[in-house]
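User: Here's a structure from my thesis project, written as C-alpha cells. My advisor, Dr. K., wants to see whether a designed sequence matches the one we expressed. Can you design one independently, without my sequence as a hint?
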C-alpha cells in the first residue's frame, strides 16, 4: 500500500473517540484540496467515495448493506433521510400460470416459423403460450421505509467543512460538518454478524445533540408505535397479499434525555446517540416480531465497539482478499462526482478505476451473502413501492451479470445465494417444461421473482425465451471449476445442470432443411428483425444465442459427468446431440448472424449483443480454436457500436468483457471510460438509465478480465492491459483450476508473478508469446519472473 495513503489509513476508523478523529476528518475533506497548490504529491484515496454536500436525490445517496438489510444515506444536515431495504419485502399477487393450451400449439408455431410465417407464429404465441395472468408480469421488491433524523438546531446554512464519505475499506458511511466550534460526526454501517443497521451520532463538545427520529413508509398501510423503549413499524405489504415485515428502532443515548412523543424519539442535549435498526419478514416462515426481538436483545448486551469490531472483521474477511493499483492521478484529490465528470471530459483517472472495481466488490458483498437472497436488478437497494422493472430478477442477462465478478474477484461465498435461487426455480420450472412444451427437465424464461415463476409471459419480443435456466446453471459449474469442490458438483451443481440439459434433449428439433438440431420457438433477447415483407418480428427457430448456450450447457454437463463418473448414457446422448447442433453462421458481411437467416436488423445498435454469448461469458470462441469467429465477433461488436450500441450501462459493461476476450486492450479501456463517464451516477451506481446494478458488476468483472483470463485451459497474464495502465499491481484474483494470482507490471510489461495453488493441479501460464507449465502442490506458492521463469 502506498505511503501517500497515510491520511486515509488514519481515517479508516478504528472505534476511537476524541477530538483527533474530528480534526483528521476535517483535514481529509477540506485541507487536502487547498494543499493542491502547496503539495504536488496527491493523497491516495482509492478506497473512499467522498462528496462536499448532501445527496440531492436517491441516486446520489451512499449505500450500505449486509446481504439482507440495506440503507441509502443522504447526509442531510438539518434533515437526514436514511432509506431502508430488507431483501424479502416483496408483494405477492395471483400465481402466474402456464397456459394449458400451449402444448397443442407449439408444433404449429414451429411449423410457421420454419416456413417464415413469423407474424402468424407470434399471434399464436400471444394467444396460446404467453401467460396473461399478471398484466404487469412479476411481483415487486419494495422499500422497507425510511428513518428520518431532524436536527432543528442545525441550520444547514451555518454548517461548514461538510464531508460525506463511503469508506470501502470499512464498509461505513461518515458524514461530518462543523457548526460554530462543534464538529459533528454521523457514522452508519450495516452489520452482517449482528444483522443490524447501526447509526452513531457524536459531537466534539458535550450536550450538542438534539434531534427527533421517526420511521416512515410510503402509503398508509404501516403501523408505527413505541413499546418497551423501541419504535416499531409493521405492515402487510401489497394490499395484504405480500410479506409481513417488522422494523424496530432501538436508541441508546449518552448524556441528555430521550423520550417518545408523537411517533418520534425526542433526544435533547445528548453527548452521543446510537440507533440500532433491525428488520425481518415472514417470508422464510419466521415470526418477524420474534426475530426482531431476538436481534435487539442481542444488541442491547453489546458495546458499540464490539459491534463495530465484529462488523469490520467479518467484512475484511471477504473484501481484503483483493488489492489493486493501476497508477496515480491528481484527480484523486477531488470529490467523486467531480472525478466522474472529469472522466466524461476525457481524463485518465486510474485511481477512479480502482475505486470503481472495489466498489463493485463492495456491492456484491453488501447485497449477496450466504443465506441471503441473490442481488436483484438493483442489488439490495430500491426506493419506493414501484421501482423500475419491479426490481425483480431478469434472467436473460441481468441476474447472471450480477455474479460475473464472484469467482474471479475472490468472492465465491457471495455466489451461493444464486445457487439457492436456481434450486428454488426447479419445481416450477419442471411444471412449465411439461405443461408448455411436453418436455422433461426444467425451464425458466426471461424474468422471475421471489415466488419463482418460470412461465413465459408478456410479449414475444422478450417473453418467448426458454433459455433462462440453461444460462443460470453455468454459474454453479463455474463455481466448481474455480474451486474444485467435487462434493458441491455432486450434490448441487450436477443435479441442476442435468435438469436444464434434459429439457433440451426433449426440446430440440431438427431443422427441415439441414436435419441439424435447433431450439425454438424462441427469440434473441429483446431484439427484433425485419422479414422479407418488411414486418418487424422477433421470434425464430435456432437463434444464435440459443445454439451457443445449449452448446455451452451440453459441454459443461459432459465434463461434469466425466468428473463424477456418472450417467454415461446421458453423457453419450449429449455428445451425440451436441455434434448435431446447427452451427452459428457468419454472414456475407463477415459478422456473426443473430438469427438463422441474414435478416435486416430493426435496431442495429440494440443493447443486447446476445449472439456473442460464445465469446463471453461462454468460452466456445477463442483465437486458438475458432479464429474465424473471433474475427467475426470483432466485426459484430464494431457494427453495434457504430450504430449506437452500449447506450445502457450494463450493455457497455458487457462490451468491456467482449473486448477483453478479444485482447483489444485499448478498446476495452475506451469502453470502460465510457461506462464510468456516461453511464455512472454520482454515487458510482450504474445508470441503465435509471439505476440498475448489473453494470457495476459487469464493469468490475471486465476490469478483472482485462488483467487475467483462464477460460482456455491456460492462465493468461495481462491479456488486455491498456496503454494507460502502464504501471500497476493486482493481488488476489482467482482462476479456474483453483489458482490465486498476484501480478506486478511496469512500463506495460509484467515484472513479477505470484501463483498460489489451492487444488494442486497443473498450472499453465501464458504471457505474450511465452508459456510456462508446471505441476503444483496444494497450498504452495510459486514465484515467476518477467521472463515467465520460475524463480525458486
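Assistant: Designed independently from the structure alone:
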Amino acid at each position: 500500500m502506498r505511503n501517500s495513503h497515510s491520511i486515509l489509513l488514519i481515517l479508516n476508523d478504528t472505534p476511537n473517540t476524541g477530538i483527533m478523529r474530528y480534526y483528521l476528518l476535517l483535514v481529509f475533506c477540506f485541507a487536502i484540496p487547498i494543499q493542491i497548490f502547496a503539495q504536488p504529491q496527491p493523497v491516495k484515496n482509492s478506497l473512499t467515495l467522498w462528496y462536499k454536500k448532501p445527496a440531492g436525490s436517491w441516486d446520489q445517496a451512499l449505500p450500505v448493506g449486509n446481504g439482507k438489510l440495506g440503507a441509502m444515506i443522504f447526509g442531510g444536515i438539518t434533515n437526514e433521510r436514511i432509506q431502508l431495504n430488507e431483501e424479502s419485502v416483496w408483494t405477492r399477487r395471483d400465481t402466474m400460470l402456464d397456459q394449458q393450451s400451449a402444448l397443442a400449439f407449439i408444433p404449429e408455431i414451429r411449423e410457421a416459423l420454419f416456413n417464415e410465417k413469423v407474424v402468424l407464429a407470434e399471434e399464436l404465441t400471444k394467444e396460446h403460450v404467453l401467460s396473461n395472468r399478471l398484466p404487469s408480469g412479476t411481483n415487486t421488491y419494495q422499500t422497507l421505509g425510511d428513518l428520518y433524523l431532524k436536527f432543528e438546531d442545525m441550520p444547514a446554512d451555518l454548517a461548514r467543512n461538510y464531508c460525506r464519505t463511503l469508506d470501502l475499506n470499512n464498509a461505513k458511511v461518515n458524514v461530518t460538518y462543523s457548526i460554530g466550534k462543534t464538529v459533528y460526526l454521523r457514522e452508519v454501517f450495516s452489520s452482517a454478524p449482528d444483522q443490524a443497521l447501526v447509526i452513531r451520532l457524536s459531537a466534539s463538545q458535550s450536550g450538542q445533540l438534539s434531534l427527533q427520529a421517526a420511521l416512515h413508509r410510503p402509503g398508509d398501510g404501516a403501523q408505527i408505535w413505541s413499546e418497551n423503549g423501541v419504535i416499531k413499524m409493521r405492515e402487510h405489504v401489497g394490499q395484504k397479499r405480500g410479506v409481513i415485515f417488522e422494523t424496530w428502532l432501538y436508541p441508546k443515548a449518552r448524556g441528555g434525555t430521550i423520550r417518545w412523543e408523537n411517533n418520534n424519539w425526542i433526544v435533547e442535549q445528548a453527548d452521543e446517540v446510537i440507533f440500532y435498526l433491525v428488520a425481518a419478514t415472514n417470508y422464510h416462515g419466521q415470526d418477524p416480531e420474534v426475530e426482531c426481538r431476538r436481534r435487539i436483545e442481542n444488541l442491547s448486551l453489546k458495546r458499540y465497539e464490539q459491534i463495530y469490531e465484529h462488523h469490520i472483521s467479518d467484512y475484511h474477511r471477504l473484501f481484503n482478499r483483493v488489492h489493486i493499483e493501476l497508477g496515480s492521478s491528481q484527480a484523486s484529490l477531488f470529490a467523486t462526482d467531480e472525478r466522474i465528470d472529469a472522466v466524461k471530459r476525457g481524463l485518465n483517472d486510474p485511481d477512479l478505476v480502482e475505486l470503481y472495481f472495489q466498489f463493485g466488490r463492495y456491492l456484491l458483498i453488501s447485497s449477496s451473502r450466504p443465506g441471503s437472497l441473490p442481488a436483484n436488478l438493483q442489488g439490495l437497494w430500491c426506493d419506493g413501492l414501484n421501482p423500475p422493472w419491479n426490481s425483480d430478477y431478469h434472467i436473460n442477462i441481468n441476474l447472471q451479470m450480477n455474479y460475473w465478478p464472484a469467482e474471479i474477484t475472490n468472492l465465491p461465498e457471495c455466489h451461493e445465494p444464486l445457487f439457492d435461487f436456481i434450486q428454488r426455480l426447479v419445481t416450477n420450472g419442471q411444471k412449465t417444461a411439461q405443461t408448455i412444451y411436453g418436455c422433461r427437465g426444467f425451464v425458466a424464461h426471461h424474468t422471475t421473482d421471489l415466488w419463482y415463476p418460470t412461465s413465459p409471459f408478456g410479449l414475444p419480443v422478450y417473453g418467448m425465451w426458454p433459455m433462462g435456466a440453461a444460462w443460470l446453471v453455468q454459474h454453479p459449474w463455474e463455481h466448481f471449476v474455480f474451486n474444485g469442490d467435487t462434493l458441491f458438483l455432486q450434490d448441487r451443481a450436477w443435479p441442476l445442470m442435468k435438469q436444464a440439459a434434459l429439457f433440451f434433449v426433449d426440446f430440440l428439433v431438427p431443422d427441415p432443411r439441414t436435419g441439424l438440431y435447433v431450439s425454438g420457438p424462441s427469440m434473441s433477447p429483446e431484439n427484433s428483425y425485419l422479414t422479407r415483407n418488411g414486418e418487424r418480428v422477433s421470434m425464430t427457430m435456432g437463434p444464435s444465442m440459443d445454439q451457443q448456450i445449449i452448446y455451452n450447457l451440453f459441454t459443461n454437463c459432459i465434463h461434469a459427468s466425466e468428473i463424477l463418473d456418472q450417467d454415461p448414457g446421458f453423457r453419450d446422448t449429449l455428445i451425440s446431440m451436441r455434434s448435431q447442433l446447427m452451427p452459428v453462421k457468419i454472414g456475407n458481411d463477415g459478422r456473426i448472424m443473430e438469427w438463422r437467416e441474414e435478416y435486416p436488423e430493426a435496431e442495429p445498435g440494440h443493447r443486447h449483443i446476445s449472439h456473442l454469448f460464445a465469446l463471453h461469458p461462454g468460452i466456445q470462441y477463442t483465437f486458438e480454436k475458432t479464429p474465424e469467429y473471433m474475427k467475426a465477433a470483432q466485426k459484430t461488436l464494431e457494427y453495434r457500436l457504430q450504430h449506437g450500441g452500449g447506450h445502457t450501462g450494463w450493455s457497455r459493461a458487457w462490451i468491456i468483457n467482449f473486448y477483453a476476450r478479444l485482447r483489444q486492450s485499448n478498446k476495452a479501456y475506451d469502453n470502460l471510460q465510457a461506462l464510468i463517464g456516461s453511464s455512472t451516477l454520482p454515487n458510482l451506481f450504474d445508470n441503465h438509465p435509471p439505476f440498475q446494478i448489473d453494470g457495476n458488476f459487469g464493469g468490475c468483472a471486465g476490469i478483472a478480465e482485462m488483467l487475467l483470463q483462464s477460460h482456455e485451459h491456460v492462465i493468461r497474464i495481462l491479456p488486455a492491459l491498456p496503454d494507460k495502465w502502464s504501471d500497476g499491481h493486482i493481488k488476489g484474483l482467482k482462476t479456474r483450476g483453483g489458482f490465486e494470482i498476484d501480478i506486478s507490471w511496469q512500463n506495460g510489461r509484467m515484472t513479477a508473478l505470484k501463483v498460489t495453488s489451492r487444488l494442486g493441479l497443473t498450472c499453465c501460464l501464458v504471457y505474450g508469446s511465452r508459456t510456462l507449465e508446471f505441476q503444483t502442490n496444494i497450498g504452495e506458492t510459486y514465484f515467476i519472473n518477467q521472463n515467465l521463469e520460475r524463480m525458486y
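When you compare it with your expressed construct, this may help: The chain has 22 helices and 33 strands.
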